[in-house]
Amino acid sequence: MRETMRPLVTAGRPLHPLPLRIMHWVNAVVMLVMITSGWGIYDDDVIIRGFHFGSFWRLGDWAAWSLNWHFAGMWFLAINGVAYLVYGVASGRFRTKLLPIRPAEVVRTVVDTLHFRIAHEDLTVYNAVQKLLYVIVILAGIAQVVTGLAIWKPVQFSGLVALMGGFQTARVLHFAGMAIIVGFLVVHVTLALLVPKTLLAMLSGGPRVGAQVSDKEELVR
Ligand code: HEM
Questions:
Q1: Residue 219 phi/psi, 5° resolution?
Q2: CA of 25 to the centre of ligand 1 (A)
Q3: N or C: which end of the chain has fewer CB within 10 A?
């Protein structure tokens, strides 16, 4: 049997590490609970006259049940969200994967997409539009928690309510945040289904990245 030496290669980490995948899927389930239970609460006292969501789309048979779902879900949303933000900053993921966002690249990606030239061969980099949408939805998620606090406890958070221009405005802002997140979700889920390998990567971890060749060698028989 021949023996040779070869450089020691460390395998690298999955593109989407396990903690990130757990937080992403917890968030996906909790967001659906928050959105559909929010529709149940909205239907009880609508903002846009004549516009209801209808029982098929609502979580909870009536407003009080929808409220229960919403109040239970908000803890998971907030705790999971804070964990994702801390992880994103501490691991450097936000800096390396979501930033920087260059306006010229956003324009180029939009033009390419309109000409059906969306390249998604390399899963390891997000294009400029993806980065922008992810940052927008992360900010929308934070805004939902803040506007939600204002309408949940308007007396305790009266300063926050005043900053937002009153209780009704805070409600409208909370509704607008929901609309942004739902709009994001329609595009996000459609793209994930159109490029299933991104979906598989968000489930399994995807390709390994950051493999390193060390100056040490290993013996191969
Ligand atoms: C069933 C629903 C969902 C599906 C199928 C889905 C699918 C995916 C996939 C496949 C990726 C990786 C994209 C890529 O590699 O190109 C991803 C990333 C991401 N998704 Fe979702 N997603 C869902 C729900 C959500 C929700 C509800 C949110 C937030 C409101 C969200 C926010 C994000 C963000 C911010 C990333 C980037 C994460 C990072 O790299 O740090 N997703 N999602």
A1: -90, 125
A2: 8
A3: N
Q: Which of 21, 77, 121, 202 to mutate to test the pocket of ligand 1 (most atoms within 8 A of CB)?
A: 202
Closest of 163, 155, 141 to residue 23, by C-alpha: 141
Both tokens of 51, joined, read 């516009």
Q: Which two tokens stand for residue 199?
A: 């979906």
For the stretch 81-105, pLDDT in tens is 999 999 999 999 999 999 999 999 9
Between the CA of 41 and the centroid of ligand 1 the distance, in Å, is 26
Q: Which of 45, 63, 91 is the last residue of a domain?
A: 91
pTM of the model: 0.90
87 pocket-lining for ligand 1 (C-beta < 6 Å): no
By CB atoms closer than 10 A (0-12, 13-18, 19+), residue 7 is exposed
- CA–CA dist 16, 51 (Å, integer): 40
Q: Taking the CB of residue 137, how many other CB atoms lie within 10 A of it?
A: 18
Question: Do 105 and 200 lie in a common domain?
Answer: yes
Measure 43 CA to ligand 1 centroid, in angstroms.
Answer: 28
Q: At what angle do helices 167-194 and 18-44 cross, to 10 degrees?
A: 130
- The ligand 1 atom at the shortest distance from the C-alpha of residue 191 is 10
Q: What is the pLDDT of residues 15-41, one digit of tens each?
A: 999 999 999 999 999 999 999 999 999
